[in-house]
Amino acid sequence: MSELSTKDLIRQEVENLINETKKSVVDVKKFAVSEVWKILQLLTAVVIQLIENLGNDLSSPDKKKLALELISTFYDNIFKVVDIPWVPSIVEPIIHSHVKSFLMLLVGSGIDAMVATFRQVGVFKPKQPVSVQSNVGTERKIIVDFLNDLKQIVRAE
C-alpha cells in the first residue's frame, strides 16, 4: 500500500474537520451570511495552518490552490442553506452559488493577507525538516479550537 501524499494527508485532516463540524451543527437548519463569513475566516486560518504545518514540500501557489479547494469543499458540505437578509426564501437557492463565489473571492484575498500576517507575527516558524507525525497533536488542537469557536459563532446569533 502506498503512502499518502502531503495533499492527501491535508485533505484527510480537513475531511475530519468537516465531519466533526457536521456533528457540531447538526441542529442548524440555515446559516446567516454573517455566520458563514465568520466561520470562513476561522476556517481559512485553520486550513492555512494545517497546510503550513504539513505541506513543507508544496509551493506557495500549490498551497493557495489547495486551501481554496478545501475551503470550497467545506462550504459545500456545511452551508446547505444560507439565509440572506431581504431576499425571499424562494430566491435564495438561485443566488446561493453567487454568494459562494463572492465569499470565495474574499477568502482568496484573505489567504494572502493571513499568510503575510502569520509570517510577520511569528505564527509560522522558519522552515525546518519535520516529520508529519510530529505535527499530529498540533493539528488536533487547531481543529478543536475551530470547533469551539464555531459553537460560539453559530449559537450567538
What is shown here, in short?
By secondary structure, this protein is an all-alpha fold.
Write the layout of secondary structure elements.
Elements: H1 6-24, E1 31-32, H2 33-54, H3 60-78, E2 82-83, H4 92-121, H5 136-156
Parallel strand pairs: 1-2
General description of the model:
By secondary structure, this protein is mainly α. It has one domain (6-156). 71% of the residues lie in helices and 3% in strands. It is built from five helices and two strands, in the order αβααβαα. It has a two-stranded parallel sheet with strand order 1-2. The longest helix is centred in the C-terminal third of the chain and has 30 residues, at 92-121. Residues 130-134 have low confidence and may be disordered.
Keywords, separated by commas or semicolons:
157 residues, mainly alpha, two-stranded parallel ribbon, globular
